[in-house]
Amino acid sequence: MMRNRFSFLLGLALSLFMSGAAGAQSSPAAGPSPVATADGEAPGMQVLQITKLKRSGDSVMLQFTVVNNSDADSDLSSLGGTQYRSVDAVYLIDMAGKKKYEVVRDTDKSCVCSHDVQSVKSKSSTNLWAKFPAPPDSVQKLGVVVPHYMPMDDVLMSQ
Fold first, then answer.
1. Domain-by-domain residue ranges, the chain?
2. What are phi and psi of 79, to 5 degrees?
3. What three-state secondary structure class fits 2?
């Protein structure tokens, strides 16, 4: 009897640890209120939420959440451009200055962004991020373009 309880508690603790270790995926209701949102190509099924667009020195950090409201898992491999299972196809646009800002790359040409992006489980969400070069100080708002989501114009950068 005692051994069965121990096995049960050990199994429960392990499953709680593993669900926490998965990290980025959670229920869609959690998190700060978004700065901007966009529907995916199938409206209502997937929603992209910009949680932070922040200038820090000579770079801009974009943090966003993909919320999967559908009944099926959603593959996010289309967010990668040249680097599979990353978000390196995401970019920022300064509409007034007519300039496109692509994800920063390191010396190995690897994006400074989320890697090993997996599918988003049904009725859950995942948090992603990417770093970009900062526009001139006079630029306060940028467009955010994420493949397969409606573009978001005039997203205010925080300092």
1. 26-156
2. -80, -10
3. helix
DSSP letter assigned to residue 154: E
Cite the beta strand spans of 11-78 per DSSP E.
36-39, 46-56, 59-68
SS3 39: strand
Report, as an integer, the average pLDDT of 7-26. Answer: 38
Distance of alpha carbon 144 from alpha carbon 113, whole angstroms:
15
More confident residue, 44 or 157: 157
At the topology level of CATH, where does 26-156 sit?
Immunoglobulin-like (2.60.40)
| Chain segment 34-66, per-residue pLDDT in tens | 999 999 887 668 899 999 999 999 999 999 999
Does the pTM exceed 0.85? no
